[in-house]
Amino acid sequence: MANKFSLVSMGCPKNLVDSDNLTERLINSGLSCLDNHEKADILLINTCGFIEDAKKESIAEILKITELKKGSKHLIVFGCLAKRYRDELLKEIPEIDAIFGVGEDERIVEYCKRIAARRKGDTEKIREKHSPIHRVSSYAYLKIAEGCSRKCTYCVIPLIRGEYKSITPDEILKKAERHISGGAKELILIAQDTASYGKDLNGYDIANLLKDLCSISGDFQIRLLYAYPASIKESLLNVIAEEEKICRYLDIPFQHSEDRILKLMKRGGSRNGYLNLIRKIRHAIPDIALRTTFIVGFPSETEEEFNSLIKFMEKAEFDRLGAFKYSKEEGTPAAKLKGHLTDAIKNRRFDTIMRHQADISLKKNKALIGRRFKAIIDEASKGIAVGRLYSHAPEIDGVVIMENSKPPFAKVGMGKINSSLLKIGDFATVEITDVYDYDLKGIIVR
Ligand code: SF4
């Protein structure tokens, strides 16, 4: 067969959604998807060019795949890194047959169809067909907008992905329904800024979209990631507080707390403004889990400013926190700032912030012992189930590990979970019995 493709996706969930969409389009165009590069005829890599580490990982993956490129296999590189470094990649890695940027699915599909048809010797034999969404996990990412119109000085996304553009509600709702009928029990809304959704859509906003998603029938939950602080409106908080299907969880990348650094970053926020926003959110939704990310080692960040950032995070007591070491990106205004810090300083500040967060997280986790929560099951095998509470987003937050359980699961194997009773995507009630820095341990009580 000459029309088998494999696709590897690097980087963030937004890239993963792009990869899923392309996979679906290729399958609908008559090609078959394999998870094995060695047997595939067309090897596709969706690259990430967000920060230095991500670039290195994507390049390493391309080089790894070039070793498998024997005979008449085709290697296609696309995505963020491909868009930023098209000429360099083509020059340095001659094994690449074609390179595409972001949002060029149409061209990639046409290219792949041409290869497949050429190899089959008959263009007519490329059939159009409709594929179901195959599901192997409890959740599905749902992209609600492309691009970003903000101008954060360290970020390459607007250069790569262009201006913010909301995907139409109709398209999102249809995709959501397909995910749910395909077995997804959690829809995770993503965009560069989910809270800005609809700003280009005549009055239909994120709160409207969430309400419409909640009205889809079925037992599922919804989670919102990447809400830019200045875009969070009362209507969004109200809908999270009111709708049972929406996880009481908000991911708000604050990036820093100090006014001078926020100004240099062009984030348009302030320490006091952020503390007020956090108070407002917790007042509106008392049990909300708040996640944030911070950039440490931004150019000219002083020791004093870094210490103030630590005080800010201790005051805010975020439930989840991720940190990035500042990465100097070509073409961004921040790359031209004075006072770039050494890797040693960035590493030390990164370790310090994560150590403080581990303490906060452990303290918060300890307060959960003895309490019962609804958990979604992500893995169930060999007598152990791994799941998440409303306060855990997959891949970036902790998990709850469920070992010993009470009936009905305890009826088999001396208190062990009968994995045939628990399936990926099931909801269970779990009682928290023990905690680690980030993960929890519990028993299933229902
Ligand atoms: S909001 Fe700022 S950091 Fe986020 S994608 Fe847009 S420009 Fe980049």
Describe the structure.
The chain has about 450 residues and is α/β, with parallel strands linked by helices. It folds into three domains: about 5-125, 3-Layer(aba) Sandwich (Rossmann fold); about 140-365, pyruvate-formate lyase- activating enzyme; about 370-445, OB fold (Dihydrolipoamide Acetyltransferase, E2P) (Beta Barrel), CATH 2.40.50. The protein contains 13 helices and 18 strands. It has helices at about 15-30, 50-65, 80-85, 85-90, 105-120, 155-160, 170-180, 205-215, 235-240, 260-265, 270-285, 305-315, 345-365; strands at about 5-10, 30-35, 40-45, 75-80, 100, 140-145, 145, 165, 185-190, 220-225, 245-250, 290-295, 320-325, 370-380, 385-390, 400-405, 425-435, 440-445. Strands 6-9-10-11-12-13 form a six-stranded parallel beta sheet. A five-stranded parallel beta sheet has the order 2-1-3-4-5, with helices on both faces. Helix 8 (about 205-215) runs parallel beside helix 9 (about 235-240) and helix 12 packs parallel to helix 13 (about 345-365). The N and C termini lie far apart (about 50 Å). Mean pLDDT is about 90; it is low at about 120-135 and about 405-415. Iron/sulfur cluster (SF4) binds near residues 193 and 228.
Please tag this protein with its features.
446 residues, alpha/beta, Rossmann fold, pyruvate-formate lyase- activating enzyme, OB fold (Dihydrolipoamide Acetyltransferase, E2P), 3 domains, six-stranded parallel sheet, five-stranded parallel sheet, 18 strands, 21% strand, globular, binds iron/sulfur cluster
